[in-house]
Write a structure and sequence with these properties.
Radius of gyration: 17 Å
Strand content: under 5%
Helix content: over 70%
Structural class: mainly alpha
Distance between the termini: 51 Å
Largest sheet: none
Shape: globular
Amino acid sequence: ERRKSTTKDIHRALTRAGDALFQTGHLKPALVHMSYQLMQCDAAHSKGSNIAKAHVLRRMGAVLLEQGEHTTALETLDQAVNLLPVLHPDCWSFHLAIGDAHVASKNHRSAVEAFRMSLQSLREHPETRAFQERIAKLLTRI
């Protein structure tokens, strides 16, 4: 249990450091921090390591996109979304990031498809379903 806590603490610290570097425009050092996180995810071999790895890859895709490396960003984002289980609650945001990358690379047809997938993932999101059920219950009272 102690090792698990330490691993999560290191992951969070690297996330904060990488995000701070990215937000202040230090893109290459941000990628280095995120690369360390990927190595940590690979070393963890835990149940959630693929999901953690997917989130790191999504953040790396954002950095690459900011650097103007559209093709590499798209490849990274595709790799990220493929690590997630099909009905993972965060799928919609990964498809949204892919759509944004397609827009940046002027591939509007692919962007539309990615945005459609994002909407589909939102429709299947557990919180969306719960919200729709609440609306349906309220409508029966009107």
